[in-house]
Amino acid sequence: MFRIGITGRAEGLGRERVIVSPSKRGASRNNQSSRGKGGKPKGAGARQKPERGARPSASPARAKGGRPRAGGGDRQPKQRRQAPRKGLGGDQVEGRQAVRELLLAQRRPVKEIFMIEELDAAEILTDIRELAADLKIPLKAVTRKRFDAEALTMSHQGVLARAKPLDDKSLDDLLRPRAPFLLVLDGLTDPQNLGAIIRTAECAGVTGIVMPRHRAVHVSATVTKTAAGAIEHVPMALVGGIPTAIQELSDAGVLTVGLDADGETNLFDLDMTNDRPVALVLGAEGSGLSQLVRKRVDVIASLPLRGELNSLNVAMAGSAACFEVVRQRTPKPTLDDLG
Fold first, then answer.
1. Residue 98: pLDDT above 90?
2. Is 155 within 8 Å of 98 (Cβ atoms)?
3. pTM across the whole model
4. Which three-class secondary structure state does DSSP give residue 35?
5. What is the pLDDT of residues 117-159, one digit of tens each?
6. Which one of 106, 228, 288, 314 counts the least CB within 10 Å of its CB?
7. Once rounded to an integer, what is the mean pLDDT over residues 108-125?
8. In sequence order, which residues have a C-beta less than 8 Å from that of residue 172 and are 6 or more positions away?
9. 319 CB contacts (<8 Å, ≥6 apart)?
C-alpha cells in the first residue's frame, strides 16, 4: 500500500495531519486507547452537567447549530464550503497568478473579475487590469467585505475571476500526442494535493491527467489557487473507472507505473527513455492504490527513501516521479556538445 504522510499542504493551510502506514497501525491503536468511538477522546464533546449550585462559566452566546451569535466572542473567518461539481470545475479561479494565467491563456471565456479596491500596488495587479481591459472583461473593484462574500477560499490574494468551466477531454484525446506522458490519479480527495500535482505536471511536461468522475476532488477554487495557472495548460480527462482506464492505456502501448512505497521495483531502474509512452499512477491519500488498480498496472514501483521517515506526501512523491521521467527523456549531451 502506498504509505503517504500528509505533513503539510501546498499553501500551509490547515492543521498538520499524518496518516499512519499499515506497518504502524498497531502502535497507533495502542496510542488511541484513551479514545472513544470515532477517534475522539473519551468524554470529548459530551455535555458535562454543572454541579448543583454551580454557576455556568461565561461563554459566547450561540445560535442554533452551535455558531456564535453576532457580537458573541471572537469570530474567525471560515473558508466557504465548495460544492462538488459534476464536471471538472474550474469556473471560479482565485489567486493573482492563477487569474493572470487564465487571462494570458485565453482558452476559455471569462465572465468577470473581482478585485479588492484597497490593494497595494503590484505589477501583477497592473497586468490583470490591463489584460482585462484589452479583453473587454468587466473588472469590479469591491470592498473587502463584498469580496469575502464572493470568495471560496481564504488565500485568494484579493483577486478572483469567474470563467467557463474547464472542458474535460476523452482518454483518446490524451493518447494523441506522439509520446504521451500521463498522470492517473486514483481517487485523490485533498484539493491542495491536486493543485500541487497539476502545477508539477505542467512544469514537467505532462501531456494529460486522468481522474475518476466520482468520489474524488476535481478543480475547485482551492485547486485553482494552488495550481497557480497550470489548470489552463494541462488537459484533463474524467473517466468512469480508473481500473478500466488503466487497461485501455496498457492496450494502447502505454507503460502504466503504479507508485507504492512497498513496490519491489525501484522507479529509477525502469526504462522510460526514448520518449516511451508512460503513465504514472498515484493512489489516494492514506489508502494508496486500490486493489484492482494494483492488479491492472504493468509495474508497481517505489521511490528509494534514505531518511528516517518511511513515507512521502502524495504530491511530493508524484513530483519526484515526474521529474525522473523528465530526466530519462532528456537527451544526454555528447562529446561534441561539450566542445
1. yes
2. no
3. 0.74
4. strand
5. 989 999 999 999 999 999 999 999 999 999 999 999 988 999 9
6. 106
7. 95
8. none
9. 196, 197, 200, 204
Residue 333, pLDDT above cutoff 80: no
Domains of the chain with CATH codes? 92-163 (3.30.1330.30), 171-329 (3.40.1280.10)
Q: What is the DSSP letter of 45?
A: T
Per-residue pLDDT for 25 more than 70? no
Instruction: Report the DSSP pairing between strands 181-186 and 208-212.
Output: parallel
**Nearest partner of 186 among 310, 301, 294, judged by Cα:** 294
Instruction: Say how far apart CA 128 and CA 124 lie, in whole Å.
Output: 6
Element (H, E) at 135: none
Torsion of CA 257, 260, 261, 264, to 10 degrees: -50
DSSP track, 144-179: HHHHHHH-SSS--TTEEEEEPPPPPBPHHHHT-SSS
Q: Which residues contact 70 (CB under 8 A, 6 or more apart)?
A: none
Please, which pLDDT band fits residue 337 given cuts at 50, 70 and 90?
low
Tell me the pairing of strands 159-163 and 139-142. Answer: unpaired
The alpha carbon of 225 is separated from its chain's Cα centroid by a whole number of angstroms, namely 10
Residue 238 C-alpha cell reads as 474524467
pLDDT class for 275, splitting at 50, 70, 90? confident
